[in-house]
From TrEMBL:
Residue ranges annotated for the Fe2OG dioxygenase domain, each copy included: 208-310
PROSITE patterns: FE2OG_OXY
Keyword Hydrolase recorded: no
Keyword annotations of the record: Iron, Metal-binding, Oxidoreductase, Vitamin C
UniProt xrefs under InterPro entries: DIOX_N, IPNS-like_FE2OG_OXY, IPNS-like_sf, Oxoglu/Fe-dep_dioxygenase_dom, Plant_2OG-oxidoreductases
GO molecular function terms listed in the Swiss-Prot or TrEMBL record: L-ascorbic acid binding; metal ion binding; oxidoreductase activity
Superkingdom of this protein's organism: Eukaryota
Organism: Arachis hypogaea (Peanut)
Pfam families: 2OG-FeII_Oxy, DIOX_N
Family of this protein: Belongs to the iron/ascorbate-dependent oxidoreductase family.
Protein name listed in UniProt: Fe2OG dioxygenase domain-containing protein
Keyword Oxidoreductase appears in the UniProt entry: yes
Residues spanning the signal sequence: none
Length: 359
């Protein structure tokens, strides 16, 4: 069988990295090769994967005695303020369900391209299969395939994008997403308490919270030093929850103290990060953190990400508790739906999207 020309491998107009991987091109297509300033630092000179990232014991928050709850809430507050990223153990999500979700996601990505293309992501949208945040033919592409679905509220769902294969995929996403919603609601309660607010402050403010799921698949890459798995960005959500598939190499990096720091994830833990919404509401006390993903030469990486954000109708601005003579108001009042639209119709460029909300 004749080799497939690289130019013919597309998802719509976008190159599909899994198909590229199959033909093992001797050179990385120009569309993926990053400018020198954007390329990941060679792994040998990177900081060692961080073991300092805070770890929160969820069971101490939900089932602990008064002293344990207070101690863990303070620890959570410090994690939000000093890191913006933290891992959660004993999160009450069934580990078997997490394994099934991981298996279903992997099975979806291993389907023939023709099957996955039935659920193709339309340009300018973020639901379906392909690559999001691509707006021009000369824009550099990430070494990643994505599959994303809107979960809640019901009206954001596109039923045509929910796959028929694997057979139990959609049912698994439903059950998994319900559990992730509980995690987000519980964490926001204790994040509120850690800020000296009422525990239900975010629940009341957010209305029927918007929830989405995105699966990211990063195939191995013969030249990981030339590409990025996922461009640097902060999340437009309030909270983001990441599950990394077992056996995945270190791929996620966060920008801390102007250095890209690789994150070593604890098996069965969930990784949580603060999104732009919480940065605005706390007037910058808690900051969303720029992060990116890098590719690996020999191993693939799979992550399953849940985004949790306010209802599109909600008007957001810094809460009065975080605005005074010493802390002037850094962000204007805006509609969250308008911000979400702004976020998904711009390419990922660090924290540039948040300029939308700045005064």
């Amino acid at each position: 069988m004749a080799p497939v020309p690289i130019s013919s491998i597309k998802v719509g107009h976008i190159d599909d990295v899994q198909e590229l991987r199959k033909i093992r091109p001797k050179t990385i297509p120009e569309r993926f090769v990053r400018d020198m300033s954007e390329r990941p630092t060679p792994a040998i000179t990177l900081s060692p994967p961080s073991s300092d990232m805070p770890v929160i014991d969820f069971s101490k928050l939900t089932k602990g005695n008064t002293e344990q709850i207070q101690t863990e809430t303070l620890k959570l507050a410090d994690a939000c303020e000093s890191w913006g990223f933290f891992q959660v153990l004993n999160h009450e999500v069934d580990l078997t369900l997490m394994e099934i979700m991981e298996k279903s996601s992997r099975e979806f990505f291993m389907l023939p391209l023709e099957e996955k293309q039935k659920y193709q992501m339309a340009p300018g949208t973020v639901q379906g299969y392909g690559q999001a945040f691509v707006f021009s033919e000369d824009q550099k592409l990430d070494w990643c395939n994505m599959f994303a679905l809107g979960i809640e509220p019901q009206f954001i769902r596109n039923p045509n994008l929910w796959p028929k294969k694997p057979a139990t995929f959609s049912e698994t996403v439903e059950v998994y997403s319900r559990e992730m919603r509980k995690v987000c609601q519980n964490l926001l309660k204790y994040i509120g308490l850690g800020l000296g607010l009422e525990g239900d402050v975010f629940e009341k403010m957010f209305g029927v919270a918007v929830q989405a799921i995105r699966m990211n698949y990063y195939p191995p890459c013969s030249r990981p030093d030339l590409v990025l798995g996922l461009s640097p960005h902060s999340d437009g959500s309030a909270l983001t929850v990441l599950q990394q598939a077992k056996g995945s190499p270190v791929g996620l990096q966060i920008l801390k103290d102007q250095t890209w720091l690789p994150l070593q994830l604890i098996p069965n833990a969930l990784l949580i990060n603060i999104g732009d919404t919480i940065e605005v509401l706390t007037n910058g006390k808690y900051k969303s953190v720029e992060h990116r993903a890098v590719a690996h030469k020999d191993k693939d990486r799979l992550s399953i990400v849940t985004f949790y954000a306010p209802s599109y109708e909600v008007e957001l601005s810094p809460m009065q508790e975080f605005v005074d003579e010493k802390n002037t108001c850094k962000y204007r009042r805006y509609n969250h739906g308008e911000y979400s639209k702004h976020y998904v119709t711009n390419k990922l460029q660090g924290k540039k999207t948040l300029d939308f909300a700045k005064i």
